[in-house]
Amino acid sequence: MKRIALFPGSFDPFTKGHEDIVLRGLRLFDEIIIAIGYNSSKNKRYFPIEVMINHISTTFAGYPNIKVQTYDELTAEYARKFNAHFLLRGLRNTTDFEYENSISQLNRNLNPDLETVFLITSPELAAISSSIIREVHRYGGDVSSFLPFKL
Ligand code: ADP
Predict the structure, then answer these.
(1) I need a labelling partner for 3 at 20 to 30 A (CA). Which of 59, 86, 87, 117 fits?
(2) Before 148, cis peptide (omega within 30)?
(3) Mean pLDDT for the stretch of residues 55-78
(4) Which residues are catalytic?
(5) CA of 107 to the centre of ligand 1 (A)
(6) Which protein residue's CA is at the shortest distance from atom 24 of ligand 1?
(7) Is the pLDDT of residue 41 over 80?
């Protein structure tokens, strides 16, 4: 059976840290679905969703087993629909751990066939966060070294 993992997140924006998790995840899974959580009625994103889909798709154009999708429902339900038995998440620090710990318990409760698999961040990418990139970009700073594509 194909091992399908969902990599859910806001990806606002998708960073080199996220790219690293996806590429390392390919050693574990046959297919990875990058799932951008998106609430169409409450759009509070900084980078438009269409722009991010295009950039992520271009980044992984050479990988037929990496897909990019958007979703607006419970992650556990969305995983079930696509026959994904794994959630892929990255861990940078103890703050990530606290949050990921409770959310992974919740997701397994909602869907017992779903295991969350955590990859520890590569040290050189540990300081990259989407929220900091948004701040730098808002004030006109150069964020290109944090992103796997050109904005
Ligand atoms: P969310 O809104 O669900 O936290 P994010 O887009 O911020 O979504 O992050 C998605 C996943 O990527 C999370 O598991 C997060 O911990 C992980 N992540 C974010 N930045 C990095 C990084 N620099 N290195 C490794 N993992 C990261």
Answers:
(1) 59
(2) no
(3) 97
(4) 18, 42, 92, 130
(5) 17
(6) 17
(7) no
